[in-house]
Amino acid sequence: MKFVDEAVIKVDAGHGGNGCLSFRREKFIPRGGPDGGDGGDGGSVYFEASTDLNTLVDFRYMRHYKAGNGQSGMGGNCTGKKGDDLIIKVPVGTLVYDVDTGELLGDIKEPGVPVLIAQGGFHGLGNTRYKSSVNRSPRQTSPGSPGESRHLRLELRVLADVGLLGLPNAGKSTLIRAVSSSKAKVADYPFTTLHPSLGVVSVSSHKSFVMADIPGLIEGASTGAGLGHRFLKHLSRTCVLLHVIDVAPIDNSDPVESAKAIIHELAEYNPELLQKPRWLVLNKIDMLPDAVSREDRIKAIVDGLNWKGKVFAISAISGEGTQQLCYSLMQLIDEMKESEA
Question: Where does Mg(2+) bind (predicted)?
Fold first, then answer.
């Protein structure tokens, strides 16, 4: 299915039903009093997260949504039926913005919890409501009010604990396939990953976290080059970022310069992302011939970046070092969630 993470739609809440003008007309009661009922409230528009959805593609084809109108009141003091509410299902992690004001109306994160986006109109009053000691036969009613109408911008930001950053062909897709159930596409050409891919990493029978593979970044990504700039926003919800670096690139490029390019693009796009915990993951160490070569290459990269954070040397292909990486990630995520509780 095509991955779409932005859409613009219009939603209309239902109008409230009008109040009824009616008088009691029964045999032997020649001057019955007012019996006009109230209208029904208009239906409201809600958004609700669904774990069955992972893209906004459906909103590219259907852009207008409307809740039900309330029925008008009737004689016999009968109240009109309330308009049907409309519940729109969206992927977990969808942000709903008002196009006209820019206001964030809802962050749809919890499945089964509807979030009100457009309020239905209120019911009108029947003439029974206007009866008083000085006005026994009121002919006054009130109309129902219109429901809210909004132009909305939907923006999907995937909910992941760990985000993978790196140049194309750094081995991010191979890593997420190796440690999770993800079926991310893997090939030996750049930009194999065309959209964010999620994988659930289980470290025990009752502990797991979600890892997101973001399309590879290139120099100039923050200004629109390549593919990754479109998906950097998905990193905003992560707990930790992994800089995945190819220690033995086939094009003989400098891993240090590659890492610096990624850090620069991250800072240009959103400096706040640099405040997140960031770990260095040196991938493809199996491509280096011996332990001495590995140690030398790791030291050269760490020193070249003046890296002060954690460093992991792994091989996503053979699995070397990946288990320790996952255990360490789970420990950090648990600590961060406990501190937020």
Answer: 173, 193
CA distances from 142 to 20, 120, 180 (A): 8, 16, 61
Q: Which residues are annotated as a binding site for GTP?
A: 166-173, 191-195, 213-216, 283-286, 315-317
Annotated binding site: 166-173, 191-195, 213-216, 283-286, 315-317
Within a 10 A sphere around the Cβ of 239, how many other Cβ atoms?
Answer: 20
* Binding site listing for Mg(2+): 173, 193
pLDDT at 225 over 50: no
CA 57 distance to own-chain centroid: 13
Section 299-309 average pLDDT: 89
Domain of residue 97, residue span: 1-21+31-156
- Look at the chain and count its residues: 341
Lowest mean pLDDT among 85-89, 214-218, 287-291: 214-218
Q: Do residue 204 and residue 322 come from a single domain?
A: yes
